[in-house]
Amino acid sequence: MTKQEKTINLSESAQVDQQSVQPFPRSRKVYVEGSRPDIRVPMREISLDDTPTDFGGESNAPVLVYDTSGPYTDPNVIIDVRKGLADVRSAWIDARGDTERLGGLSSDFGQQRLNDAELAKLRFAHVRNPRRAKAGANVSQMHYARQGIITAEMEYVAIRENMKLQEARAAGLLDDQHAGHSFGANIPKEITPEFVRQEIARGRAIIPANINHPEVEPMIIGRNFLVKINGNIGNSALGSSIEEEVAKLTWGIRWGSDTVMDLSTGKHIHETREWIIRNSPVPIGTVPIYQALEKVNGVAEDLTWELFRDTLIEQAEQGVDYFTIHAGVLLRYVPLTAKRVTGIVSRGGSIMAKWCLAHHKENFLYTHFDEICEIMKAYDVSFSLGDGLRPGSIADANDAAQFGELETLGELTKIAWKHDVQCMIEGPGHVPMQLIKENMDKQLECCDEAPFYTLGPLTTDIAPGYDHITSGIGAAMIGWFGCAMLCYVTPKEHLGLPNKDDVKTGIITYKIAAHAADLAKGHPGAQIRDNALSKARFEFRWEDQFNLGLDPDTARAFHDETLPKESAKVAHFCSMCGPKFCSMKITQEVREYAAKIEAVDVTVEQGMREQAERFRQEGSQLYHKV
To answer: Is 326 annotated as ligand-binding?
Structure first.
């Protein structure tokens, strides 16, 4: 332990990041209740000012937006990261009667960590004994769905995806939405619990919700639902504390991260993950091979199935919701990467490739895949089948290694489905724009419409420091084509570990990409927020413009740089054009002028009709004697 770790007792001193618990301006947390009182689905309601009298003086209804921030932005909830979040799902899990509470951790490594007295000050203090499926039981959401059961989790996500669409439709808020082009997706006008069940049973969607993560607010990933985004956190050998990682978690979900992956590779991976899961309202994913490698001191050749299996159980008992498993990196594919510009860029892929070559054996994740499925269905951990051979440069996009692995991932998907285990597929990577749709089409074909989850893709390699933009372009495109979840890229990609500002920038960039994809697909209600903001912009309701945006703080700060006075918040111009050249103001003047002309035209038209009638009454003669 370092000197700092010896003197800090996290169970006594850990504090929530104060920036993450501030409510958004003019917003309040609302809860939509389901068929039972403990199904309370959170949403954020943004209140709006009335339209100024110059523009008609009407009131503007509040706008509901999807909310990933959990209880952190609810001022009525007391947050204490030392105790973790309140339980959301235990009553639902208990009611199903197919799980049992173990007497303690069953993984060897978990027990070692628990019995290490030196870790007491770092350990999360309120660790529950884990749950596991009863002998012979399968507790996955896919298994329930295939039995015709609509779980509380399914009802929860249906309410969450709908965002009170019926009320919005009744208010006419869906009338002005452009038709979308969904490339064969089947997006209904309303998301029902039965539709959710059907999509999960078919394998087109997953609800990542480990039975040991009762704090999670259920969400769904699938091409027929809202496009989701993932944010990565995690320590490294170079640094970062447990408190910093929890702060990154709460910061990321504030700005819209639907899931979070803990990619820790440094010290105290087990303890860091426990703190993260206990304080996370969103699903947590991991790459178990990273921790397994740490257990053998970074020597890939020393990895064994037995050690990896224990790592899976360790993480499943903590509550990890989805595992990235690089089971598609087969021995025969490794030589196909030899002539690549950037070779194998996936950390997990390179680990397994090295193991295969060192032992000249097939990937043990592939040969033991059925056994992995048995573990997954005992805890309801979802697969995120890793693309260990993804291209790391646009030169390597869509090559034989990448697509060979994708075909194997399709084979593994069908095995997972035989076990009723939920599964999504990871994708690239670096792909130029003209090759992106081929990736989506091939994934749908090979993996039978299992949800696709991509890193970008980055559309060019020339912009270090701006790869959130190079990848955001590709993310918007592949999201439109059918990708279900987009893994964010920060400005620090390829350069260093992201800080809080980088995390926020990456998430906002990807929220833009995901929302643009929802608009393009024609997802019902996707345009409501755009229309509300556009109306506020035209009516110079500056505060509403800020508050309806994805990042109110930055919008307000940019406006204040040149017009800091409060009076500027009601001005009918901005600093871009000034008062005389504002197009919105000029348009309003044109409308007022047109209204006057229209009134004159009405008077003239009436006079013309009266003269025509008089002409007919007088015999329709052109000339009359005076």
So the answer is: yes
532: how many CB neighbours lie within 10 A of its CB?
Answer: 21
Query: 521, 542, 565: which is the final residue of a domain?
Result: 521
Determine which helix (DSSP H) or strand (DSSP E) holds 28, and give its type and residue range: strand 27-33
pLDDT tens track for 414-467: 999 999 999 999 999 999 999 999 999 999 999 999 999 999 999 999 999 999
Tell me whether residue 270 is annotated as binding. Answer: no
Note whether residue 3 is domain-resident.
Answer: no
pLDDT in tens, 454-467: 999 999 999 999 99
Is 577 a known ligand-binding residue? yes
On whether the CB atoms of residues 506 and 488 are closer than 8 A, the answer is yes
Do the domain assignments include residue 131? Answer: yes
Question: pTM for this structure?
Answer: 0.91
Range of the domain at 484: 18-521
Residue 588 clears pLDDT 70, i.e. is over it? no
- 430 in a structural domain: yes
Q: Is 232 annotated as a binding residue?
A: yes
Q: Is 574 annotated for ligand binding? A: yes
**Is 190 among the annotated ligand-binding positions?**
no
Long-range contacts of 551-557 (CB under 8 A, 24+ apart): 551/255, 551/504, 551/508, 552/24, 552/25
Residue 156 lies in a domain: yes
- 266 marked as binding residue: no
